[in-house]
Write a structure and sequence with these properties.
heterodimer, A: 486 residues, alpha+beta, D-Maltodextrin-Binding Protein, domain 2, 3 domains, seven-stranded mixed beta sheet, six-stranded mixed beta sheet, globular, B: 266 residues, mainly alpha, MetI-like fold, elongated
Amino acid sequence: MYRHFLLLLVALPCVMLTVGCQPTSVEKEAVRFAIAQAPLNLDPRYATDAASERVNRLIYQRLVEFDDHSKPVPGIASWKNLGDQNYQFTLKQNLAPFHDGQLLSADDVKATYESLQQLPDSPHAAEFANIRAIQIINHYTLEFKLKQVDPHFASKLIIGILPKSLIAQQHDFVHQPVGNGVFKFDSWNNTLTLERIDDGQQVTFIEVKDPTVRVLKLMRGEADLLQGDLPPELIQYMQTKPRIKVATTQGANYSYLGLNMQDPILAKHKVRQALAYAIDRQALIDAVMVDHTRLADAILPPEHYAGNPLLKAYTYQPALAKQLLEEAGVALPLKLVYKTSTDAQRVRLATILQAQMKAAGIALEIRSLDWGTFFAEVKKGKFQLYGLTWVGIKTPEIYSKVFGTTYIPPNGFNRGRYSDLALDEMLRQEDWQAVTARIHEQLPYIPLWYEGQAAAMRQHIVGYRPKADGNWDDLKTIKRAKGQLQ
Amino acid sequence: MKIFSLTVLGFWLLAVIAGRLLDLHGNDVDLNSVLANPSWQHWFGADDLGRDILARVLRGAEVSFIVAVVVAIVTMTIGVTVGLLAGFYGGKIDKILMQITDIFLAFPGILLAIAFAAVLGPGIINLMLALCLTGWVSYARLTRGQAMSLRQRQHVLAAESIGAKPLRIMLRHIFPLLSSILIVEATYSLASIMIAEASLSFLGLGIQAPNASWGAMLRDAVRYMLVAPHYVLIVGVSLMSLILAINLGGDYLRDKLDIASSINEK
């Protein structure tokens, strides 16, 4: 009896050890992607949050895409201009069918954009109010006829195409998307799962709000991939871990300080210049920003076709800033209120700005408000200074919407109520070099930086790199290397 | 335990005084020392903005002391007044005051404080107002119960029969008998006020940047738990040991001041 027991005692751990050492292929397992904020809406006609837009890029295809210089290029269709108010689009041959098996045709494109125009609650509907009619020419070709001339019309056609028959049935695209993208929808209970059509590779999006918990999940193998919303210290920490790979790249999302141009003090040009000279952006980037973060001088980066590489950066000169404030005739220390959200990294940046500006004679008071209150106050113009980031901006039209006199909310994003007739004229002429130079000189925004993008992944994940605007397009090609479960 | 309690409380008071007397630079940002480990230059290390953690712990001690003491005094004053009036007069006054008390009691304290801070805006004054708004209720219930029983005592009836005014009876004949029980209650409430302050600051609704508070420091430290564990440990242990010391102090006072239990022990 004892001998049997002893045998069992010796054999059991050996069996367990052998089973444990079996090479377990991780090839077909889902890639678990831990993200800070889960997507809210998978209907591209409604989606506005970054996570939804990034997921929708995987599920749907668009007429137009952007190249590395943010110039619009053919997506699933090429186009030509048949006069100022008429654009003809021709769909490519052999497009992937919709996930429900139907073929994509010009009818689906027409149905998508017409349905968008008829949705009063869609945040994108206003963009397409200029469409007078959409005319089908044949199975592959259609024409957009406009009410008014719009040279940038093509770059607006970035809404994912939906199947006409499902639009007619008022299908719930919000929760059960059907497109013709590389990924099809699989399930969405607590976590969203997509499946790649080519090889059945699944990707699961897991929402983990806390950055430390996200990193711990990656290290413990409960997640395979993370991207964005990580403090630089955690990225550096992951770089030291043998089972984790970190990839960083230059970003294109523009961070800035918004100024209220109707404020009697901030309306003074010299005060705005003083603010620009009172911030040591480079020291701040070096100390607390992700690698590859670079100084910004305009909303669109220099590599953009409307970018301006000739702008001269404002450098940290507290003495000059103080002198400018004195010349402007304001009493020192100049008291200003800076509003920001309660996000820890935002408050951290605000505290550094406060310390740097102190040397220039500016007493910055920080008010960190919950996101809803903060954003509502910014939109209402109830601020002196605020800090935000423009995400995913591709077209130079943004300059009109942000600085044009006629674009004060709710008509646009001119939240600082800036009015400059000279700039309005430059905007009308679309002279982007002059526009960016004028804005850089007048400083309705104090430019900060384009934050670097970083992704961290387990060693067995290959073929994934973060993108400048933070999109997740590399999921289309991501692979799990053959190997053993760690 | 008594020694531990006294030592920690002594350190706390010393920190408050030191925070006042020393020329501390707890708000000085130094981007070259971000999350630096403890060293001769920074005994407790540096935080996520390169600020000296020791200086900030001392400053935070001062904030927690001011908030705890001010809120405890204000809530005790309001609560004891309401309780004495209700217990002494009884009848309609008691009914009305206790119904008001019950309404406040029905609110979850921290949630009301969060709502209050959200409406009035974050900041130390608003934080104290929010805590005062909910903190007086326990004093009122306690005082009212005791006052009702003391009201029937011989010495109170005697004072009343020789024409003493109600205010005099309340202050001279009832309140002194309540003081020991109120002191014990105050020590417990000190601990809960400090936790509430830390929680609200942790949520970003309390002390605003760049000023230090232990709750806000804990919130920041948690973010860097993996890269700078010393930060979260120092702040966490400071807060935990102080709350423990105050609670132990409360137990000690209760044992000393509660005549009934001290007689039983003998």
